[in-house]
Design brief:
The complex is a heterodimer of chains A (167) and B (490). Chain A has six helices and no strands. With 167 residues, chain A is mainly α. Chain A folds into two domains: 68 residues; 83 residues, no CATH class. In chain A, helix 1 runs antiparallel to helix 2, helix 3 runs antiparallel to helix 4 and helix 4 packs antiparallel against helix 5. The N and C termini of chain A lie far apart (53 Å). Chain B has 490 residues and is mainly α. A two-stranded antiparallel sheet of chain B has the order 1-2. The interface between A and B is large, with 78 and 71 residues. Chain A: Pfam families: TctB. Chain A: This is Tripartite tricarboxylate transporter TctB family protein.
Amino acid sequence: MGLVRGITVTAFFGIVLFVLIPVYVPRPNFIPGFAPPPDMWPRTISILGMGLGLLLAALSLSRKPQADADPEDAGAIRDGTPLGTLVLRFVYAVLAFAGFIVTVHFAGFIVASMALLFVMLLLTGQWQRKGTVVLVALFLPLVLYLFFSSALNTRFPAGSLVTILGL
Amino acid sequence: MLNDLLTAFQAVATVENFLIMAAGIWGGVIIGAIPGMTGTMAVTLALPFTFYMEPIPSILLLVALYKGSTYGGSVSAILIKTPGTASAACTTLDGYPLARQGKAGKALNMALYSSCTGDFISNISLIFIAAPLAMLALRIGPPEYFMLMVFALTTVAGVSGRSLLLGLISACLGLLLATVGEDMYGSFRFDMTVEMRDGLSVAPVLIGLFAIPELLKLVVFRHAGAKTALELGDNRVTRAELRRSLRSLFKGSLIGVVMGAIPGIGPSAAAFSSYGEAQRTSKNHANFGKGEIEGIAASESANNGCCGSTMIPLLALGIPGDVITGVMLGAFMIHGLTPGPMLFEENLNEVYMLFIGMLFSSILLFGAGKATMRFFTHISRIPPGLMAPIVLILCLFGIFAIANSMYDVIVLLAMGVFGFLMFLFAIPAAPFLIAFILGPMLEENLRRALAISRGDPSILVSSPITWLFAALAVFVVAVTIRRQLKKASA
């Protein structure tokens, strides 16, 4: 695990240093006075990060891999569940988040929130409480919507579909 | 001065003023406890309502909201591992583990005692040392600020768990993410979309990093998540626990006072510095991060310790130390009071009334905290599988409402996924957050100092104050490394 972590961290900072900074942190033609350029700080951090990643990988090969010594290890709470199931659950959750963002554009914030809450309640294993799940998923976003829009005058996105239908 | 204070006491001690302050404190606690609702939002929302009020009651209302929301942030930090405000993020480190041990009530009580003590000490310091401390803060320039930030960053060592290396990697990630957006000279960095030009706000990053991974843990490791149900159980803070925490509590209050008095530092940095200091000096340092009550005392006394002292530069010099005092500056002006040295010349009576009102509000904070605690403890009875998605929806609405921005909502969700991946890689989240908050100040002051010195880095160690902070930082890092080596050899 330590080796994979070290390589991943090194690769991440390496991509930032060699790919992202040259493209997304351009040096301006004119820099006032002796001010350091805008890429100085991100470059410094990336180099430091790469160094730490390499150190992490190297330490994981030593006899006492300190890099692994973290108390809150995901492996400890895995509880024998097959890896495929865990990955699938994670993918479902990420898809639900992505679905929420897409749904907001079509159906509006409130409907998307209801759908996301319903899906997340099912994903956390609350399907036995069907009545509670439906009630919470319908009414909580509605209550929050009324509170924020009336008390704070927040204008939540209505959604293109809702606008077209004139609801 | 004493006569003036007594006159001000008589003027402030009215039923109307008490009701206004109580409403402010109560409202602040509730708003602060809702993830995504910040103290700034509470103060900003209340501002229009103060237009029709007298100057002092209106300022007292805003100050009460500020104090209440600072404490309120700890309630959700302890009960649902979701700090209501950025300054309560540090409280999560020990508050939530205590709640998981069935001692949520104990954690909430310690947070309340510490907040009230820190707040009271802060108010006293505001009254007696406003002018001298403000003069010292004025002498701090970019090199000193940079070194102060470096010293504050050494807190990372204290919150890195067992692996300092993973903590440092986490801090690098936080520093890197803080560079997204426009820099101090107007250059854009990592602006992959138009929205990214504004950078990443603290609220979605903070809440995404702390709240969403808890939901994802429940979704992915379903069975294990079910075991984390919160129990209030043990409510009392014993005398022994209080005695044990007194040192950190008073030290935290003083750290809060000093850091709050320096413009731009704020309660988050104070809380983390105090926490790091408590961890370094405590006999129970090994228990920090696992549910150490002293950790709560340190962080909560420091963040509320800032509440009074942030008013020092505002009142004495007219400099708002943070966003909230910036809003308050506007409130002063609306009511015809101009903060600065002239305020003490022309409106001395109003200044003393404000001082006295702030002292009263510390006592009211205790009452409101006790009452609200009972109300919020019902949260613990909700199953985590039901609670976590509810928290997600609260976060979505709260984050959207801050700036009416879907971009912030996307950042919130993305940071949640990122936080979960960090958990899978056993990379601690707290150093990331500290670095993300302190990063912009660190970079800005480094670049400003280098620009002043025409690129000569020796400016960073050019004054006694920079030497002091540099020595403190080196000392802290050396102590941490020594401790880790000792542990490794044991």
